[in-house]
Amino acid sequence: MSPSNTPTAAPLTLAPLTLAVVRHRMRAVTEEMVETMTRTCFSPILNQSQDFSAVILDSAFQTVSQAERVPIHMGAMPLAVRMMAEAFDGDLADGDVLMANDPYWGGSHLPDVTLAMPFFADGGIRLWVALRAHQGDIGGLSAGGYSAAAREIWHEGLRIPPLKLVAGGTLRGDLLRLVAENSRKPDDLRGDLLAQLSAVRIGATRLAELFARYGRAEIAGAVDAILDGGEAVMRTLLAGCRAGVHHGLSHMEFADAPGGLLPIPVSLTIEGGRAVVDLTGCPDQVRAFINSPCANSRAAVMVAFLYFSGDEEGLSGGSARALDIRTRPGSLVDPVMPAPVGACTSSTACALIEAVLNALEGADPQRAIGGFARRFRFALAGATDDGAPFIWHYFLNKGGTGGSRDHDGWPNIGGLHNPGGTAAPSVERTEASHPLVVEEYALLPDSGGAGERRGGLGGRLVLRYDGQEPAVLNASGEGVLVPPTGTQGGEAGPGHRYALLPQDGAARPIAVHDSGVRVEPGARILCLSAGGGGFGDPRRRPRALVERDVACGYVSTEAARDVYGLETDA
User: Would you state the torsion angle of the CA atoms of residues 422, 101, 298, 400, taken in this order, to the nearest 10 degrees?
Assistant: First the structure.
């Protein structure tokens, strides 16, 4: 029979109800994966702060579904899983689970370890389930990662290229032991990796149940529709923007740069429902841990566009089809070996997101968003009273988010790369399991940038260290010299202010890249976190909202009068 006479299958007609069920069921699968991780992992950074993310990818490594946790993770996983799969091209079997963390194999920074499992059906790989988790310690110069003193990637910890943690359903115990023993907390790392393994396996099990109900053809049709829907959302957004070239700029805090600031420029060209995001003007890579691997940089760009969209249907790999992201190898946002990259996810990513949002503001000012508090984190390493080592990651008091046309910013959940996605740990559990006491924890009045829509408040935290021996603090962050910017006439929020308060002696400011800071027993750490930037002229804020802010203690009576122009009857 000639090809022209070969009968073709009738196109599948997918019922809208089936599409809705499959879409929500896949979302439920990713949520069950993160719940499995939460309930079985060991480290506080995971079981309390949930610094991990789960995705389902199609066979072409496009995101089909994701649990809403850490956007910067999810946007980077497609490239990571693609490179992991390519490393085992032709050598993948049902039951295999791959593992990697290497930034030069599609990873972000070394603490983020990704496990990925191919899902087989009808003789081929139809989907992938993957979970990336920030491990509490992966070796390197500084406990807990974020080694500000790192000058090359090998200073930052154990590099894991694509490996098979599980081959044909059998766990490779020797490999697990090798990885765990390269951590200062080997038992935690081993337990956390096994929790990740349980999570991806439960994801594959649930997908098998879904395929058993609907079959490969209907699932494939639903996947295509989900991806097409994401593309349509992004193209509609871009079609409604001002065509042409728009420029954005943000800065990073870097002591070796002129004035201590490193520019992050973005050029954005929008035309015909498509955008070209040009990052080639970014500075050359540096011998410091603020370089951002290509996968992380691309994820940051996607996060900015999804903020701007605000449409949940756009949360799929289809939205990336409308974007052309260009980088320059050897630059800060596309470094080459052996550049260190430890701060890329929470520092460089935030600056990139801000720069892209700044460019998008020129394309559609009414969608503009005030600046978010940047992430200023630290890890505190020491010993408990019984001599056991501990590493505590600071996830409390993350600052405020920016105001927008229709809403005030959210208070104290900051972090532009993952607002609210990593929960604040329990104060009670922190005090029960570490020699730490939270003496004060409250919202900080007048910390939100003033505006018609006010920026979200930052906070005040006082943490006392009650260990018997000195501890060591390693910082990594931004937001002291670069405060959250206001937009459309709104005012900036104040920057972060952190300090070490010894029992005897003067207060010592904590800088964003401080490393090896000695913390004596009885010392306190003061953290005043930034508030978000405001949107619009503060004098246009409705009187009733200003009065509410004063009554709730968010805005002082002086600021209400002097900044917002509130006149009282007194």
Answer: 20
